[in-house]
Write a sequence for this structure.
């Protein structure tokens, strides 16, 4: 058991003690290390000005090298909502750490200068770091990839064009030797710590008014969650980070589950997919792109690169938000959650897990261990639609996911999951029933329209009015019928018709499928 | 030695500092270890009497040093730019949800923010007037309506063959500069203060701080090296945090800073005005607009701020590029219990012009002709045409017109007519989505409406090694002002730009400056700098020429040298010799824009030194099932005169267009029924993201041969005008929905909800009357 946090920062090992565990990486960098290049633009993970690159070891290096995959998994994350202890054992690069030993600018820095990609300069360090992550993971020269890479970085001056040009100019470029040498040092450090999975690497910080535990094994987690039933579980902190930075909440005890090896796994069988509670959206999206092509657009539009890299599928379900994007999708899929209490497990259908606003069927001492998703069978299809003010990095006004089985143009079975329509993510049971037997080529029946009005009476808020939510939900049913009849996902304005595995995180895909 | 390049695409002076994280913004500057941090306590009522403010718990909170309230202000409790109506701390009464009531000063920002929540404020609520509707109904105006133009407009309208009436509601806009408001105050001797702030108007900060503390202006020095974006949002809104930081220094004797967090920033500060524009337009069968009566109601918020000037600019741009014989424009400044709306890129111009472009598109729809026909039928003449010099409704002759020629060029380069035809064919068979194409021209008046503001100063020192210290009154917010002025300075001396040191703007070097605003930064400060350089060059030439048997008038400054005929000495050598000859190598420069005047009482004048022009063609696609839309393509032609730095100017144009795209599409400022701002963070307020830019964007600078007015090297201002190019998106959306029923009469922002509900309204079966 350790009480100090240690990690690599711009090539130098840091050993940190005497820090409040809810200190964000951003504040620590700026206030303790005087590294003011990383900026606070919003303190909620929505603007990307605080983007840094966090690297972890990526499996067995020889095996990966043989496949031409870098031994380091580098990801852009928002430092403003990342608690410092979550970095234990990782390597962090900030904008100050990019230039070479003799002050040479890194190619990503050069490219932004050459293409006039910075005007006021405040968002620039964040763009530099997102681009650096993209550069490490491989830029393919497509604008679509850049759109995803920069979705979590807001710029108010340039209109993005010059930044996109800078990124495009870096396609297929290799880093200079000095940058490779630095990656090698980073990898050596990561190797030295990642070998350590035994309990002595568990982290336990017990300060005067705040405790933070980061176990590495499931058994340790089971023990901690029973010992501290009132503790707050934190995985990627893309939600809980805001409790601290925006709501100034005092959290007495954290249990960080992000390092528990068993919870990081994705496993696939003939009939189902099992996603560990702390698998990030980025990893899940890549591992499952071919299993659920219908989820592609929703996944690509889930938060931003930074949010998907930190946030977990389990966290999006466990917090029970009525507007979490994954919940309606998994409701449509008829997913189940596995809850674990001191080693005793129970499985709950997702539709029963959401009880009421802010209330889930999770008892004290229980934690969400994994999600079980049925695979799509023959003649089963999944369609998902996200409606928000902005395409990227926005919270849904309405999200509809539809799982359906049809035969000779008629709907045999249907499950509709909706977000944004009720206080919890919900199935539209009456609407489903009204559509059974419906011919895909016929207009939406009036019975379905009135059933939808029985299923939902949505609220009006800053994202959308009640009237719009109803109108668009109805039209999404129409869109789904059209698309199902045509057997494609062609009625979308979002630029990617369908997901191709995102080459930016190809390393993660290999790791995930090796697991 | 790098060659100095005027008219070249030099990179931004801070480019390397930006990409390496070394550029220091206010919150990044070294701060003394005993420095204190401040958080504001804000009203959570829109309109109420304060019956009690108990800060006992704040004072007891860990790390708290003191609390500031109105009682701690020794001088004037006012942060306003003009009218004296913006209290620093509410005193007895709050007039908007988010208004500052008190501040907590603590050892850390976190301690201050934790403590500020612990105050107990009690209120006696008063009825709140929140919207334009409320204000018009209750006649709740800041001042009497103001009208310019034709007096017998009713008669003129009656004479026209056709009459169009309508109304458009135009939404507001949050600045969302990436760096929030920030101010640091440092104590000096005997009560003096130095402030480092993020403000477009250091002189105003100096004045407001001095008045609040009861000091002479000379006791306060305000410095601004750079801002992380301004867009008008730091013209007056930086006053309050600076005053509060200064009050904290006054009360504690220790350095203090106030850095707004995002939610604080969005709740406290004003935004772009939302407007309701009502119009009556008389026109004939050819699309000629004969008379126009426009009524502009602005949501100003709880005080004037800059609203009067903004309203005036909206009025003076109500006719945009069109010569209309009889125009009347009336402006109503609605007082509402919301944040006091303020300057924002375009300063009322965008709203005024959007009203006009809506009228053009709607007239064309009624006549069933291409809107380009109506535009071209009504344009002001170009400068080289016989009718050049037509008068605006406020009496200024338009002598430098370019819009007819630019339109012709852009219609060709964008293939407008062919694409419009294709789009209309597409829409005839459209199932789930429709396309639209729109055009908008821009004619934007350059100069502050208030004539006296059109002045600037600069200060140059030449050191004996030939290096130059450059200072002027303009501030850098990313627009590249410092880079351009350095180009001007280096060019004047014939030296490379790395010999010219850009230094932070400070009231201690150049006094009595105007805000860096109205797009005028380079016009004013570039000219002042050039004038200072001419003074120094004159002194050097006069002293050195006789030593080299030459005539002062024939001395040339070129390639880092001073040339006396064929003989040359280095600039450094020249500086050293001048020093040894006891010649002053320090000079100020001054510039006041000539030939402008505006009489608000007479409602007549020539307030603008010249006009900047632009035009854009935008194509959109709208999903008729969801209302979602995308901008597919934008073609832009913009007039920057003789561009001093094409890369910087193109950056302003593209960035301005995208900012305008956000204003018109995804950016929606939403208040609750009790006046609370609901969209107070990027999670709920959506500025354009990377993928929202048009799939294709073609931006070109128009080669006009340079400004016809005598500006610095014949360049034109480029900060604000391109914002209004985005109005073409409005026309494109209207086009996409045209044909579903009656003319769409869209309001903005054109969110998915707005577009779907509008389309549904158009498609709904007509009720029989």
């Amino acid at each position: 058991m350790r009480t100090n946090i240690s990690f690599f920062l711009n090539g130098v090992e840091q050993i940190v003690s005497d820090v409040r565990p809810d200190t964000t990486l951003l504040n620590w960098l700026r206030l303790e290390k005087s590294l003011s290049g990383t900026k606070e633009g919003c303190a909620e993970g929505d603007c990307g000005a605080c983007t840094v690159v966090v690297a972890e070891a990526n499996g067995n290096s020889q095996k990966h090298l043989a496949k031409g995959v870098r031994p380091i998994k580098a990801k852009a994350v928002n430092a403003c909502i990342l608690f410092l202890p979550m970095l234990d054992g990782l390597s962090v690069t900030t904008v100050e750490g990019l230039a070479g030993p003799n002050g040479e600018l890194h190619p990503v820095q050069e490219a932004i200068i050459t293409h006039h990609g910075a005007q006021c300069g405040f968002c620039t360090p964040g763009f530099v770091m997102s681009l650096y992550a993209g550069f490490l993971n491989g830029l393919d020269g497509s604008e679509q990839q850049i759109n995803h890479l920069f979705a979590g970085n807001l710029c108010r001056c340039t209109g993005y064009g010059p930044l996109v040009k800078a990124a495009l100019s870096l396609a297929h470029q290799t880093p200079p030797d000095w940058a490779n040498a630095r990656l090698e040092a980073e990898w050596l450090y990561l190797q030295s710590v990642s070998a350590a999975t035994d309990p002595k690497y568990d982290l336990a910080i017990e300060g005067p008014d705040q405790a933070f535990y980061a176990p590495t094994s499931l058994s340790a987690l089971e023990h901690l969650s029973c010992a501290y039933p009132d503790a707050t579980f934190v995985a990627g902190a893309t939600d809980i980070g805001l409790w601290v930075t925006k709501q100034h909440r005092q959290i007495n005890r954290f249990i960080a589950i992000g390092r528990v090896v068993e919870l990081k796994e994705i496993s696939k069988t003939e009939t189902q997919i099992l996603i560990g509670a702390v698998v990030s959206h980025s990893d899940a999206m890549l591992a499952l792109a071919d299993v659920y092509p219908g989820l592609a657009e929703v996944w690509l539009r889930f938060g931003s690169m930074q949010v998907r890299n930190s946030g977990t599928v389990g966290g999006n379900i466990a917090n029970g938000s009525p507007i979490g994007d994954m919940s309606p999708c998994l409701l449509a899929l008829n997913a189940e959650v596995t809850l674990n209490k001191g080693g005793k497990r129970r499985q709950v259908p997702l539709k029963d897990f959401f009880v009421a606003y802010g209330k889930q069927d999770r008892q004290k001492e229980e934690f969400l261990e994994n999600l079980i998703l049925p695979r799509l069978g023959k003649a089963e299809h999944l369609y998902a639609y996200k409606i928000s003010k902005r395409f990227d990095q926005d919270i849904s006004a309405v999200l509809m996911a539809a799982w359906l089985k049809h035969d000779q143009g008629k709907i045999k079975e249907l499950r509709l999951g909706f977000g944004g329509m009720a206080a919890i993510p919900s199935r539209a049971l009456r609407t489903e029933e009204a559509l059974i037997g419906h011919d895909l080529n016929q207009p939406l029946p009036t019975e379905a329209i009135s059933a939808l009005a029985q299923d939902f009476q949505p609220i009006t808020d800053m994202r959308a009015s009640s009237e719009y939510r109803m109108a668009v939900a109805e039209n999404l049913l129409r869109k789904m019928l059209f698309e199902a009849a045509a057997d494609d996902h062609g009625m979308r304005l979002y630029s990617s018709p369908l997901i191709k595995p995102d080459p930016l995180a190809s390393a993660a895909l290999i790791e995930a499928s090796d697991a | 030695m790098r060659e100095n390049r005027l008219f070249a695409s030099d990179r931004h002076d801070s480019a390397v500092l930006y990409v390496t994280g070394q550029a220091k913004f206010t919150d990044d500057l070294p701060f003394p270890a005993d420095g204190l941090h401040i958080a504001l306590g804000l009203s959570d009522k829109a309109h109420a009497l304060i019956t009690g403010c108990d800060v006992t718990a704040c004072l007891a909170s860990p790390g708290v040093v003191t609390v500031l309230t109105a009682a701690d202000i020794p001088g004037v409790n006012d942060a306003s730019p003009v009218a004296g109506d913006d209290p620093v701390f509410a005193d007895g009464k709050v007039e908007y949800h988010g208004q500052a009531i008190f501040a907590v000063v603590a050892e850390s920002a976190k301690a201050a923010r934790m403590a500020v929540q612990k105050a107990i404020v009690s209120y006696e609520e008063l009825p709140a007037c929140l919207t334009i509707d409320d204000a018009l109904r209750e006649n709740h105006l800041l001042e009497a309506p103001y009208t310019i133009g034709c007096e017998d407009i009713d008669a003129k309208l009656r004479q026209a063959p056709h009459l169009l009436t309508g109304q458009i509601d135009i939404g507001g806009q949050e600045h969302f500069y990436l760096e929030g408001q920030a101010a640091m105050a440092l104590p000096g001797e005997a009560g003096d203060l130095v402030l480092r702030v993020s403000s477009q108007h250091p002189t105003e900060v100096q004045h407001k701080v001095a008045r609040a503390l009861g000091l002479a202006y000379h006791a306060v020095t305000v410095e601004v090296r750079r801002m992380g974006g301004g867009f008008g949002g730091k013209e007056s809104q930086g006053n309050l945090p600076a005053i509060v930081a200064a009050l904290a220094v006054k009360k504690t004797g220790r350095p203090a800073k106030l850095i707004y967090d995002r939610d604080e920033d969005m709740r406290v500060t004003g935004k772009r005005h939302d407007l309701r524009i009502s119009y009556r337009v008389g026109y004939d069968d050819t699309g000629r607009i004969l008379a126009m009566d426009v009524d502009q109601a602005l949501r100003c918020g709880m005080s004037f701020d800059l609203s009067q000037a903004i309203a005036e600019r909206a009025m003076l741009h109500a006719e945009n590029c069109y010569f209309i014989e009889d125009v009347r424009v009336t402006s109503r400044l609605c007082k509402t219990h919301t944040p006091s709306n303020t300057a924002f890129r375009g300063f009322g111009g965008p709203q005024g012009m959007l009203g006009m472009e809506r009228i053009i598109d709607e007239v064309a729809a009624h006549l069933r002709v291409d809107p380009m026909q109506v535009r071209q039928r009504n344009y002001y003449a170009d400068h080289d045409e016989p009718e050049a010099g037509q008068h605006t409704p406020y009496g200024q002759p338009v002598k430098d017109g370019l819009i007819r020629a630019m339109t012709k060029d852009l219609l060709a380069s964008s293939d407008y007519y062919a694409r419009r035809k294709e789009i209309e064919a597409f829409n005839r068979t459209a199932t789930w989505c429709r396309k639209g194409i729109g055009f908008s021209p821009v004619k934007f008046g350059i100069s502050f409406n208030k004539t006296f503001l059109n002045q600037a100063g600069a200060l140059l020192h030449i050191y004996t090694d030939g290096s130059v210290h450059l200072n002027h009154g303009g501030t850098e917010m990313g627009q590249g002002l410092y880079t351009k002025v350095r180009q001007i300075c280096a060019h004047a001396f014939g030296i490379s730009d790395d010999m010219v040191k850009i230094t932070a703007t400070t009231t201690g070097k150049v006094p009595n400056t105007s805000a860096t605003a109205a797009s005028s930064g380079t016009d004013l400060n570039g000219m002042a700098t050039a004038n200072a350089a001419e003074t120094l060059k004159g002194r050097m030439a006069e002293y050195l020429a006789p030593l080299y048997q030459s005539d002062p008038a024939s001395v040339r400054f070129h390639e880092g040298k001073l040339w006396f005929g064929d003989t040359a000495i280095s600039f450094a050598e020249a500086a050293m010799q001048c020093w040894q000859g006891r010649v002053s190598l320090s000079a100020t420069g001054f510039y006041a824009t000539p030939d402008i005047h505006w009489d608000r009482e007479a409602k007549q004048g020539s307030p603008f030194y010249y006009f900047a022009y632009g035009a854009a063609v935008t194509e959109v696609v709208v999903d008729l099932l969801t209302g979602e839309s995308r901008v597919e393509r934008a073609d832009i032609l913009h007039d920057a005169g003789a561009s001093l730095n094409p890369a910087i100017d193109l950056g302003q144009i593209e960035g301005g267009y995208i900012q305008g795209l956000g204003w018109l599409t995804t950016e929606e400022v939403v208040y609750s029924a009790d006046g609370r701002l609901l969209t107070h963070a990027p999670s709920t307020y959506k500025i354009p993201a990377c993928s929202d830019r048009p799939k294709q964007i073609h931006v070109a600078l128009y080669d006009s041969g340079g400004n016809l007015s005598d500006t610095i090297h014949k360049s034109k201002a480029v900060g604000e005008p391109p914002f209004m190019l985005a109005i073409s998106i409005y026309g494109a959306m209207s086009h996409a929905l045209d044909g579903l029923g009656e003319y769409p009469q869209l309001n903005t922002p054109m969110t998915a909800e707005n577009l779907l509900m509008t389309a549904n309204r158009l498609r709904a079966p007509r009720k029989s009357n």
Q: What stands out?
A: The radius of gyration of chain A is 23 Å. The domain at 265-486 of chain A is CATH 3.30.390.50 (Enolase-like; domain 1). The first helix of chain A runs from residue 25 to 32. The CA atoms of residues 429 and 455 of chain A lie 7 Å apart.
